[in-house]
Amino acid sequence: MNKKSSTKDLGLSSNERLYLKNISNFKPKKYQNFKPKGLKIYTFHAGFKNKLDDLLLIIFDNPVNFSCVYSKTSMPSAPIIWGKQHSRKSLRAIVVNSGNANAHTGSQGIKIINEYVDFLSKKINCKKNQVLVSSTGVIGEIFDPKIIIRQLAKIENKLQTKLFEAAKAIMTTDTYPKISVMNVTINKTSFKIYGIAKGSGMIHPNMGTMLAYIFIDLDLPKNILNKLLNSSLDKTFNSISTDGDMSTSDTLALFSSGTTKINLKVKKNYQKLNTSLSKLMRDLSLKIVRDGEGISKLIKVNVLNCKSIRQSKKVGFSIINSPLVKTAISGQDANWGRVIAAIGKSEEKINQNKIKIYFGKNLLCKNGSIYKNINYNKVNKYMKNKTIEISVILQTGKKSHTVYGNDLTNEYIRINAYYRS
Amino acid sequence: MNKKSSTKDLGLSSNERLYLKNISNFKPKKYQNFKPKGLKIYTFHAGFKNKLDDLLLIIFDNPVNFSCVYSKTSMPSAPIIWGKQHSRKSLRAIVVNSGNANAHTGSQGIKIINEYVDFLSKKINCKKNQVLVSSTGVIGEIFDPKIIIRQLAKIENKLQTKLFEAAKAIMTTDTYPKISVMNVTINKTSFKIYGIAKGSGMIHPNMGTMLAYIFIDLDLPKNILNKLLNSSLDKTFNSISTDGDMSTSDTLALFSSGTTKINLKVKKNYQKLNTSLSKLMRDLSLKIVRDGEGISKLIKVNVLNCKSIRQSKKVGFSIINSPLVKTAISGQDANWGRVIAAIGKSEEKINQNKIKIYFGKNLLCKNGSIYKNINYNKVNKYMKNKTIEISVILQTGKKSHTVYGNDLTNEYIRINAYYRS
After folding, report:
1. pTM for the full model?
2. Cβ within 8 Å of A, B 365-394
């Protein structure tokens, strides 16, 4: 609304500066680059951002089966509304732009999508409903579909890029691209699963958070993809939170992009595939938290021995979203009292005299009050770690759940007070 | 847990430094001081804080009727557990210490209270259950009741203080004392209502937030006090939030400390008393938000034309607790897109094409997308104000509610990363 975020530069100049300036200290030191089989990747500079690539196009060689979940927000973006309007059995292409979320743009937002999807579907000879679209960036600003169409027109003469460039093109306040690749062998058949994701702020689970695309180099039917996606979602993308703010644009899609078939009627085979995908989804979702806006420390909260998974998750998110817990961790203070307060605000019925709280392996609180033999030297040393693990034992039952988040720092304020998203 | 917050100084040295350094720019310029009739006020330096007074004792001349609400947390502090254990018809004294919350201190916490209340009740010749106790400060640290008893022993030779000193003695990260006084005349009878409160962080409504004590200089029966308290609570103390973190210690008490009687069977009289008290409670609760940790701007969110009060409150708190909205306001950015995202995460069923959003009197969003004729100069100028009013019109019904909070700044991080509460 002010100068630094006018519609002209679509608010992304400061992002680009941020990208160059303040990098998460969890950024991977090395990247391998990959080019999955069965698809072509193109990235473009459309002009949503000042200089960086901001448009990703993926074209599958043949129509592929897929499974997809969207944000549970009651204010979905135009790409999500459009996606839900178009039922489809298979996909031929994915178009993602970063720098403008096309959210709360009304009927115009839908019209914009229709225009560039219409152009693309004619160009690559597929049905309109065979295109998956996503947008991420500032909310509420209308843009001209021509800036996308102008790029899509160029594909004949454009060199293909790879996963690293794809992951980079969909970033907003992310400080590094997020890629996970897994090698799997089932019954002597080897194949790969590839995933890319973006997300750094406005991260609160309610589906898969933010944008994530996962490609399995196998030929799988849609019902299996649905089953696989749902079985891993809750413990991965739905268990992370950076700021408790759910996005309008979250999309997670799983594609069967290969031709190899595997006998999944053999239970062991299915389980191996499921476990491998689950590991990749966990890795990819953690890459997002590790790039949480302004992060200095990753926080892992285990809520153990609970009455139900629901209770465990509720208490876990109450802790991981508490600004007071988050600031204590950033200040390297093992402030278990704020953890107690956060448990209390969940309003779950819990006997506080039975709770145990550990920071790492250090017991801090037991039988309703402070543990008598705390080794403060050890605890202070532990709090200097980059990853802090808090374990809370409620003793209300036998269920457990783990959630992930990050600390709250001055850097979060700087990014969000001066960057427009 | 680290040096700066050892048990020795009970973590309050940094608070005292904070108190001197970073004062909310909403701090009242002048204070009048008051000494309500029918009660004696004493303040002491017990040693919870380094230098400042940290213990308040109020003794009523005669037993008084009262009404009291506590935090809804499932992890209540020892004073709240103790208070709920002791049913009582009237009160003779209030004891409040700041610097240690006596929370999550198990059976020892209860024993501590029993010891100092036992001492006091013998000293002033009342029943133990006629004493109301509160504690505020760091959670989980046991203290020796003697440091309170040593002070209570001195009252014969101690000079009485007034409301200003009382409000000051109960502060923790507060940067100024909170007092409200109201003159009321009903049927030619004039009387005063006095209130003091403390609270700055860990502020999220679920009862009256934090500590607040209100004295009505009238003789009122308990059932009227209960009725008065409940009728004003929801629109005042239960409509503010600084950080979404509910405290373990919140207590709000209303006392009938006078001797004057008023005919409250006359409906008009009751309504006038109710309105006056409600105004005082609103003023006192706003004084707390205006001293919200790290505040630079007060945020008022009106959620209008809703299906129900419940929906209006849910959406209001979703906006006022959104870190992304709060940082945008601190960055003077009228980022209505983040307001939309915050409405969405409430998961309320709302047609986004009917929502209107105003910042002050400036319409920013209408019919599902950005308003065409925004006067950006006017909006940018408005965002420089100390108080920002956001009005959201949902058009799902006829109910409305207003909630209050403050922006999120570097100062909040500084206070909570380096102060132990």
Report:
1. 0.81
2. 365, 367-370, 376, 379-380, 383
